[in-house]
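Q: Structure tokens for this one, please.
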Amino acid sequence: MTVTVKIDISTPTGRKLVRELEKHKTVVQITYPKISHLPEGIVTMDVGIEEFWKHLENRFGFDLSNYEKSTISKDLKSSVEEVVLAKQGKIKLKSADQLLNELYTLRIG
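A: Here is the predicted structure, written as tokens:
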């Protein structure tokens, strides 16, 4: 038997409920609606990255985007794709502790 529920994720309570449901991947399947158009005021990933670089330049006084800008942009996009796949239960991401342990092991070894 299955139950279909609609949760308003524009509220903190709705988001909290969805986060709790996401923890139970073996018995819960969450389907997010397809977005046919961008909501008003939202920016694309490329525009967001450009704004990020401008913010860093204003903060630190020099253009950090000259340092491997294309590589960092690709890494950011790849990270976003990995998070989406992880939320869909298609891949499992390593925890921060696991990553830190790997870095520590590499540093010692």
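A few notes: Residues 30 and 62 are 44 Å apart (CA to CA). The radius of gyration is 19 Å.
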